[in-house]
Design brief:
713 residues, mainly alpha, two-stranded antiparallel ribbon, two-stranded antiparallel sheet, 32 helices, 4% strand, globular
């Protein structure tokens, strides 16, 4: 029976794939869903001077709810500072705000935070989640991308400079086409390469690899900017949303003309200076690499001869024929034979005599040390460009590149009144970007307004930010979302304006305390009768620890930093055959204390602190981070080398000017939680330090484990 069902499903898929993309009858009422309708600015209820609060109060009345009391001023400044910058305020900043009773004290605080460089870093962390950015390719080789970090810095700078969102969108999709000569716009096109890519050696199906790249590009745009599951139409017409299979491939055809290209953005003089510096560096490196090669060569040759003696005669015969005289079959046999006798590097290293192996380790350590002096690579944009000629794009049966159906022209979603994109290779992405950035586009402003609301309020009005379709989460307040979208466009696509509006509402400034009666009506807080209590991301926890201990290096941008990793993680990544350091870290420990945004983000290696606190894997778009609770989180914050080192630095920071336990406890609470300890906390601290004779560093470690430390109030 299951075989019959499978055949029926395949038949239905093929029937769906054959439907004419212009068939309005098939799209039918699907296009009438609210998310596909133009945004109409709703009238604001006459319930509050603040429009956002007015829409929420209107819903409270309908649901029998009421808002929660406001948060006290000390915790409010901690909330908004953590929220807008990802870093805690200082005790002095809290005290200054609490003491400032001027009518515009909160507005001034918000403006200062919006102007902070940390604001862009905070936003970038979440935007990069959504576009699935990492500094490596992923998959089994997971090679590093030496120039990808410029896209990360572009995102930080864009949020800090309050770049209009429509420009931000257009630069990422088609910066090279729309703004030729603008280096930032070229770097922005690294958006299309932010996701994983399968780059491996050996025989490859190049057409399949290309199809994977096009799939990544198509899904990137549809998830991030359209908030739609367009990928569901890859094999057949979307089962629920008005997206034809032809629409999917029309959208993919826009990217068919795209080439992945690293573009140098330097002057001829800079290039000449770099070449001279590289020549000098390689001259210093060559004696070391030559000596390593001299150690390995006899071992490699011996292994090859031993393996050659066991090789089948047909391979030996083919290898004995000179390359220019081999038939295609002999060439294939010779290549296979050489592959069988050539040892991999780990086999060679394991076969080296112990004394020579030790000498090789010393040489490689010299090599690693010298590598830190390698001239910086030429400034290069990890970007895209256009091919001279765009290949024809076909619909694919069940998404299989080997089974092509009808050809399609580049274009957009039929249900949204889309028109064809240009047929020439150049201009396709520009047309897509202009279409998405239209003020009357039904999805673009709604999707981004929802993302802004999610970041500030802890949950989206549409709880599935990447899926505004029929099967996506139901919008909890459609009128509010449409007002936000309309306001976003009318403000000139101003993200800081939207942030300012949201954090200035009474809803944002509510307490997060739970009221049992209200929870019985709305246990999930879909209607925002209280503020959502949110745990900090792993990156923000690490950054907050560094700021508390006085170790944070606030330098913006630059090449990703490798920090020391736990021995057990190192052993997982690297074989014991190579005992020297394959994860070289800078000697300058201040660089290890950069914000977590700037740590090397390797798809296959997650730092335990970040991984345990739900850092995304950067394989697929992550619009909402998971919020798990498990024992490894507590164990990491209590026992990791990083936390122990930082607790030691924290303790050292308390001692100057504090000669008594009371003074140190007070100072520790001010630094970590920006408040004085309560009497019971002071007594517990004294008991811990005096009666149990525990060292101050353990007290500091315990304070960094406080629930209050890792949660936004």
């Amino acid at each position: 029976m299951w075989k019959s069902l499978l055949l029926a499903a395949v038949a239905l898929s093929l029937i769906a794939a054959s439907i004419n993309p212009k068939d309005e009858a098939w799209i039918g009422t699907r296009r009438s869903y609210w998310a596909f309708q133009p945004v109409v600015r709703p009238a604001v209820p006459n319930l509050s001077p603040n429009p956002i609060d007015a829409f929420l109060l209107e819903q409270f009345q309908a649901k029998g709810l009421s808002p929660s009391p406001p948060l006290d001023r000390a915790r409010l400044v901690r909330r908004v500072t953590l929220d807008l910058t990802g870093l805690p305020p200082t005790a002095a900043e809290v005290q200054r705000f609490v003491a400032d009773r001027s009518p515009n004290a909160y507005e001034q605080l918000v403006e200062r935070l919006l102007a902070s460089p940390a604001y862009g870093e905070r936003w970038a962390l979440r935007w990069l989640d959504t576009v699935r950015y990492a500094d490596t390719n992923g998959y089994e080789l997971d090679a590093e991308r030496p120039h990808a970090w410029r896209f990360r810095d572009y995102v930080v700078n864009s949020f800090n400079s309050n770049k209009p969102y429509d420009r931000f969108l257009k630069e990422q999709i088609a910066g090279d086409e729309l703004y030729p000569g603008d280096q930032a716009a070229l770097i922005a096109t690294g958006f299309h390469r932010a996701g994983p890519i399968h780059l491996v050696g050996g025989n490859q199906d190049e057409e399949m690899n290309r199809q994977e790249v096009l799939t990544e590009m198509t899904l990137g745009v549809s998830n991030v900017f359209l908030g739609m599951t367009v990928g569901c139409a890859r094999c057949h017409n979307h089962k629920f949303d008005p997206i034809l299979q032809a629409d999917y491939y029309r959208l993919q055809a826009i990217f068919a003309s795209v080439a992945l290209k690293d573009s140098e953005i330097v002057t001829p003089a800079e290039k000449a200076a770099h070449e001279a510096a590289m020549k000098a560096f390689e001259a210093r490196l060559k004696p070391i690499t030559d000596e390593i090669a001299a150690i390995e060569k006899p071992v490699r040759e011996r292994i090859k001869e031993e393996r050659k003696a066991k090789l089948e005669k047909r391979f030996l015969d083919a290898m004995a024929i000179s390359k220019d005289k081999r038939t295609p079959e002999q060439e294939m046999l010779a290549k296979a034979g050489n592959g069988q006798i050539s040892p991999t590097w780990d086999v060679v290293v394991n076969a080296i005599e112990p004394s020579e192996k030790a000498r090789r380790v010393g040489l490689r350590q010299q090599m690693h040390k010298l590598e830190f002096e390698r001239p910086e690579p030429l400034r290069t944009a990890y970007a895209v460009a256009n091919l001279d000629k765009a290949p024809v794009t076909h619909m694919l049966k069940l998404g299989d590149h080997r089974h092509k159906l009808d050809p399609v022209e580049p274009g957009f979603l039929t249900a949204l009144g889309a028109i064809d994109a240009p047929g020439a290779p150049t201009g396709r992405r520009a047309a897509l970007a202009e279409w998405l950035a239209r003020p009357d586009h039904p999805l673009t402003a709604r999707v981004m307004a929802n993302r802004i609301w999610l970041l500030r309020m802890g949950s989206g009005i549409v709880p599935t930010p990447n899926d505004f379709g029929i099967l996506g989460g139901k919008a909890s307040n459609r009128k509010l979302l449409d007002w936000l979208a309309a306001e976003f466009v009318s403000s000139g696509w101003d993200i800081k304006h939207m942030d300012r509006l949201i954090v200035s509402t009474a809803a944002y400034r509510q307490s997060a305390d739970i009221d049992a009666k209200k929870a019985a009506i709305d246990g999930e807080n879909k209607y925002y009768w209280r503020m959502n209590r949110r745990r900090l991301e792993g990156e923000a926890i690490r950054d907050s620890i560094l700021q508390t201990t006085g170790q944070l290096n606030p330098r913006l941008g630059g090449v990703p930093v490798k920090v020391p990793i736990e021995p057990e993680i190192y052993d997982i990544i690297f074989t014991e055959a190579e005992p020297d350091n394959l994860w070289p870290v800078l000697a300058d420990k201040r660089e290890h204390n950069r914000r977590s945004l700037y740590l090397l983000n390797k798809r296959t290696v997650r730092l335990p602190l970040l991984n345990n606190f739900d850092q995304p894997d950067a394989v697929s778009s992550c619009p909402v981070r998971a919020n798990s609770t498990h024992a490894l989180q507590a164990l990491t914050l209590m026992n990791s080398d990083f936390v122990f080192d930082q607790a030691t630095a924290f303790a050292a920071r308390l001692e100057p000017g504090c000669s008594t336990p009371q003074c140190r406890i007070n100072r520790a609470y001010e630094l970590a939680l920006q408040r004085a300890p309560k009497p019971v906390e002071m007594q517990l601290g004294l008991d811990f330090l005096n009666r149990q004779k525990m060292p101050l560093v353990d007290f500091c470690r315990a304070l960094l484990n406080r629930h209050e430390f890792v949660y936004i109030p």
